[in-house]
Task: inverse folding
């Protein structure tokens, strides 16, 4: 399913946004504004033509310059508040208002700028005229731009917060692990010393059997923190059996002793991999997975052969507990719930309760039989792992843990173990992570992303691996298609004779060939990586990858594995499927092109870099206006707190200059604007050249808008759907049509209406650019949008649940 988990639609009817509204409630000013807007749309709908603002507003000059006096009329105020429309619709370009940006930046472009390929069709989208607006005019301006540029000391050394400990006294043996295991960690896994959380957890879990809640930041080595004590105890159990009878030891047929539950298949596979590496030091112990995505028959066969440690997703384990006789859980003495908060978020609470009930029942039955293995602990130890201690994790703790010990290793802790920040706030970004935010107007988003990536990959070696987080699968597909296409007007790389003489094809070349087939229909989800023509400089290739929950499981696994192994420059475009727990080696940069739906997700996303003490960078794209308020959240997630020393700021102009003007000094200080405009036009032409691409662009755009409405309530003040300028945003999806005229097959229409049938009003929908009065309580349209957003969020949750139960993208994230 490419609609990415959201069922409702923001389609706005052609008749306009205010369809015979009742002018009740609100202030007299709201009512008058609404009435005037309704008259405008009524005139339009009845063919009386658009209201000529220049003739009704004496304050407008012919060139569209406004001169609003102190005593403004309501309409004048409205005109002063909204970004003036200067779009070219079909005919000749006629500016109607002064652009909000500085005059030097004003670079109108007309159809004559758009050079079409010979014979290329540039069809106007059905049901609407093409709008070719300038990239650099009428953009909202930043509300937080500092008057003077603040220079950050980007290279100032920062003590990593998740690195292995450096004291010579902190060794794995000093924590209670056997010399054999410690030697294996050192020699085979190249792990010299434990991290802080490993030190705290291993000491505790090896010495006693109490339940535990492990809480630590991303990339701090939580996986080994819970796996090492389990492996150590199983090695001890084996040694104990051997002592009793020389030929006896734990082996695969001895029974299942430990279960690790993880929320996603990818994470389960990753845990299994770490386990396999560990168990090379105890080859008689066998681990395996049951996670779905493969035939149940083969999973049953694996269980029948016997496993000592099982990594599973909750849904699949419940299924096997109910239907696989060979699965005997009576000896299970260690249960781990990894990524506890995500397990709850994905609605696995019931499954976990079933698993716990089943384990208790079978353990009791076995005890009654008196047939326990000698040396096996009488009590089961349950370990809950999570980066946050939210309410839902607490609830999971209540159902799964008994008298649990809270294990936490946070460098911000005082000597007495207390922390000034509230429990929920203890989840912080790694200290060594260098963060920045980019303030980019909606129209400039696409070209800015391309420029940002181009700059990142310009010199081989500086940045090798990048993850770009995007809110929904359709948008991932759309951006992947652009990055891997050969856009007209982009310099082509000279052929590399060395590569051509090679007998075997490079994977990137193979994928490029497959890509050619894909270009005719970008909705085909068979190609997940290919050379990025757009991002590859002349000197080297950059490979682009895509990952989201609508891809087949096997494809997701192989894509991740390929990205992880790739030592050449590469970029992964992904939904939040890649945000949790995944340990992809050497990710240098994380770009949050679309901000996360919740603060915790944001921290998990940026935590894919700067892992285990390594350096990393993260940049989040914010739009001018209320989104800029999110910087406060970014600051609160850092150890350097309010000072925000390591949160840099970049503006779109800067990004475009650095990314597009790579050949040193240029006399024209606005040359980057021409370049950016050329790129934007090339992408728009690319989209127009094929109906499938155009449909993919519309789908991406609509899914993006719907996803935007699903930010958590506490953060909707930063990501306010009513402030989203749909018309400008459409440009970032290469669309030249009005949002209201867009029809996408397969997406439900009419959901943008409130219960009384009046369509919801959204900023810049092309029908009314005036944002709501700001008083949601008195504005019926604001309430309608709110209601709509609430419906969407509900639909997303329902869809996630449905997908899981239908076994489609089950145990997997939204994407
Ligand atoms: N003691 C250590 N020394 C060096 N590297 C380590 C050590 N322990 C773990 N690592 C490495 O650190 C990385 C992160 O480990 P892990 O995935 O367990 O982190 P995590 O805390 O679970 O992160 P997340 O919360 O993002 O899931 C892995 O690549 C792992 O190999």
Result:
């Amino acid at each position: 399913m490419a609609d990415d988990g959201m069922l409702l639609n923001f389609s706005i009817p052609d008749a306009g946004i205010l369809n015979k509204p009742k002018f009740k409630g609100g202030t007299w000013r709201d009512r008058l504004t609404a009435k005037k807007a309704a008259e405008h749309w009524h005139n339009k709908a009845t063919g009386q033509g658009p209201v000529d603002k220049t003739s009704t507003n004496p304050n407008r000059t012919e060139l569209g310059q406004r001169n609003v006096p102190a005593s403004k009329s309501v309409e004048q105020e409205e005109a002063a508040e909204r970004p003036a429309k200067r779009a070219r619709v079909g005919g000749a370009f006629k500016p109607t208002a002064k652009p909000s940006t500085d005059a030097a930046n004003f670079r109108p472009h007309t159809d004559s700028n758009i050079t079409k390929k010979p014979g290329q069709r540039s069809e106007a989208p059905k049901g609407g005229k093409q709008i070719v607006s300038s990239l650099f005019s009428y953009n909202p301006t930043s509300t937080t731009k500092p008057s003077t540029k603040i220079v950050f000391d980007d290279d100032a050394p920062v003590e990593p917060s998740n690195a292995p400990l450096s004291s010579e006294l902190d060794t794995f043996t000093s924590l209670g692990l056997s010399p054999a295991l410690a030697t294996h960690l050192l020699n085979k896994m190249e792990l010299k010393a434990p991290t802080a959380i490993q030190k705290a957890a291993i000491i505790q879990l090896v010495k006693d059997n109490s339940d535990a809640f492990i809480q630590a930041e991303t990339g701090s080595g939580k996986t080994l923190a819970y796996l090492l004590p389990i492996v150590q105890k199983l090695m001890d159990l084996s040694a104990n059996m051997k002592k009793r009878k020389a030929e006896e030891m734990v082996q695969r047929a001895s029974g299942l002793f430990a279960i690790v539950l993880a929320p996603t298949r990818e994470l389960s596979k990753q845990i299994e991999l770490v386990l396999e590496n560990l168990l090379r030091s105890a080859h008689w112990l066998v681990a395996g997975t049951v996670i779905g995505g493969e035939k149940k028959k083969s999973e049953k066969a694996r269980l029948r052969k016997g496993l000592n440690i099982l990594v599973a997703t909750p849904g699949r384990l419940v299924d096997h507990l109910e239907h696989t006789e060979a699965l005997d859980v009576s000896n299970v003495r260690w249960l781990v719930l990894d990524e506890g908060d995500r397990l709850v978020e994905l609605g696995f609470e019931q499954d976990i309760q079933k698993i716990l009930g089943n384990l208790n029942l079978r353990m009791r039955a076995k005890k009654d039989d008196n047939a326990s293995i000698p040396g096996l602990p009488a009590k089961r130890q349950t370990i809950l792992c999570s980066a946050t201690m939210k309410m839902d994790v607490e609830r999971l703790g209540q159902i799964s843990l008994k008298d649990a010990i809270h294990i936490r290793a946070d460098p911000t802790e005082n000597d007495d173990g207390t922390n000034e920040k509230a429990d929920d706030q203890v989840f912080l970004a790694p200290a060594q992570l260098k963060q920045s935010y980019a303030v980019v107007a909606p129209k400039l988003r696409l070209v800015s992303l391309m420029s940002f990536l181009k700059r990142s990959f310009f010199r081989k070696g500086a940045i090798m691996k990048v993850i770009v987080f995007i809110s929904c699968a359709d948008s991932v597909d759309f951006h992947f298609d652009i990055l891997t296409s050969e856009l007209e007007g982009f310099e082509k790389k000279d052929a590399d004779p060395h590569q051509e003489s090679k007998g075997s094809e490079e994977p990137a070349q193979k994928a490029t060939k497959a890509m050619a087939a894909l270009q005719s229909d970008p909705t085909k989800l068979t190609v997940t990586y290919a050379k990025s023509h757009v991002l590859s400089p002349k000197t080297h290739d950059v490979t682009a990858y895509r990952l989201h929950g609508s891809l087949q499981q096997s494809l997701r696994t192989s894509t991740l594995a390929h990205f992880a192994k790739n030592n050449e420059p590469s970029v992964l475009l992904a939904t939040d499927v890649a945000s949790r727990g995944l340990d992809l080696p050497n990710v240098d940069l994380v770009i949050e092109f679309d901000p996360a739906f919740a603060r915790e997700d944001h921290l998990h996303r940026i935590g894919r870099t700067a892992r285990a003490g390594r350096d990393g960078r993260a940049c989040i794209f914010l739009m001018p206006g209320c989104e800029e308020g999110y910087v406060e959240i970014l600051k609160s997630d850092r150890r350097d707190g309010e000072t925000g020393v390591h949160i840099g700021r970049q503006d779109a102009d800067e990004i475009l200059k650095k990314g597009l003007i790579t050949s040193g000094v240029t006399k024209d200080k606005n040359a980057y604007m021409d370049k950016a405009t050329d790129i934007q036009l090339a992408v728009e032409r690319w989209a127009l050249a094929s109906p499938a691409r155009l449909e993919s662009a519309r789908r991406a755009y609509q899914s993006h808008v719907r996803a935007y409405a699903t930010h958590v309530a506490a953060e909707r003040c930063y990501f306010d759907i009513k402030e989203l300028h749909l018309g400008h945003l459409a440009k970032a999806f290469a669309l030249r049509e009005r949002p209201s005229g867009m029809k996408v097959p397969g997406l439900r229409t009419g959901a943008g209406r409130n219960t009384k049938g009046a369509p919801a009003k959204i900023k810049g929908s092309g029908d009314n650019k005036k944002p709501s009065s700001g008083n949601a309580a008195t504005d019926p349209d604001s309430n309608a949008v709110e209601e709509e957003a609430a419906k969407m969020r509900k639909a997303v949750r329902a869809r996630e649940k449905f997908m899981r139960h239908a076994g489609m993208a089950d145990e997997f994230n939204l994407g």
Q: What stands out?
A: The pocket of adenosine-5'-triphosphate is lined by residues 164, 191, 194-195, 198, 216, 218-224, 387, 581, 583, 607, 611-612 (CB under 6 Å).
